[in-house]
Amino acid sequence: MNNQRILSHFHESAELKIQSATVLAPHIAQAIELMFSALSNGNKILVCGNGGSAADAQHFAAELVGRFERERFPLPAMALTTDTSILTAVANDYSYREIFSKQVQAFGQAGDILLAFSTSGNSANVMAAIEAALEREMRVVAMTGKGGGAIGKMLTDADVHICVPADRTARIQEVHLVTIHCICDGIDVALFGGDAND
Q1: Are 53 and 176 in contact (CB under 8 A)?
Q2: Dist. CA 153–CA 37, nearest whole Å
Q3: Is there a binding annotation on residue 51?
Q4: What is the pTM for the complete model shown?
Q5: Is 1 a residue whose pLDDT tops 70?
Q6: CA 75 to CA 37: how far, in whole Å?
Q7: Ligand-binding site membership of 50 (annotated)
Q8: Which residue spans within the chain are E strands per DSSP?
Q9: Cα angle 111, 158, 78; round to 5
Q10: Is 93 annotated in some ligand binding site?
């Protein structure tokens, strides 16, 4: 691979992040407010996604339960992508479509948040998880791309849709990662005020 091809990845990623910043900032702020309110009221955040988005789900949960950039008490977040016994049992006995929705039904309560990742906006098991969350009077923060797909049409006015204005999966995931960090930082600032570097 020549240097020019490598540079093009960096440039495309940087340009999309700059383009996305203005478009997504209001939605990210809404997500922070929604999540902080839920956490302040003793609720939790459930997180799901497939493939690279499963890694994003686990990354987000780890930042809340552990820490982001400053020491604080653990915050209740759980990735629904990690229990292989639940995942394989549900996929085998029911269908792969239900691997997240069954867990939302088991663990989700009114006032909780579902953070749902799908770069296409059309992941069937993520859609099923959103359906289960809405039935349980949970709020949803959906992180998508490619126009938002079917997920964009499922959300209510009380939910938040963070749709990256891109079609390339790798670039969407890169913006999702920055968004995760923005949300974690926003929650920390809402908890403690100011800036970690002040």
Answers
A1: yes
A2: 24
A3: yes
A4: 0.95
A5: no
A6: 12
A7: yes
A8: 45-48, 77-79, 113-118, 139-144, 160-163
A9: 40
A10: yes
Question: Which pLDDT belongs to residue 195?
Answer: 61
Neighbours of 66 (CB within 10 A): 11
Strands (DSSP E) along 13-124, which ranges? 45-48, 77-79, 113-118
Q: Is 63 annotated as a binding residue?
A: yes
Query: What one-character DSSP code corresponds to residue 122?
Result: -
In this model, does residue 197 exceed pLDDT 90? no
The residues with which 115 forms a beta bridge, in sequence order, are: 47, 141
Is residue 173 part of an annotated ligand binding site?
yes
Residue 112: closest CA among 145, 159, 68, 157: 159
Q: Write down the pLDDT at residue 194.
A: 72
Q: Does the annotation place 118 within a ligand binding site?
A: yes
The mean pLDDT value for 73-85 works out to 97
What CA–CA distance (Å, rounded) separates 164 from 113? 20
173-190 pLDDT per residue, tens:
999 999 999 999 999 999
92 assigned binding-site residue:
yes
Neighbours of 91 (CB within 10 A): 15
120 annotated to a ligand binding site = yes
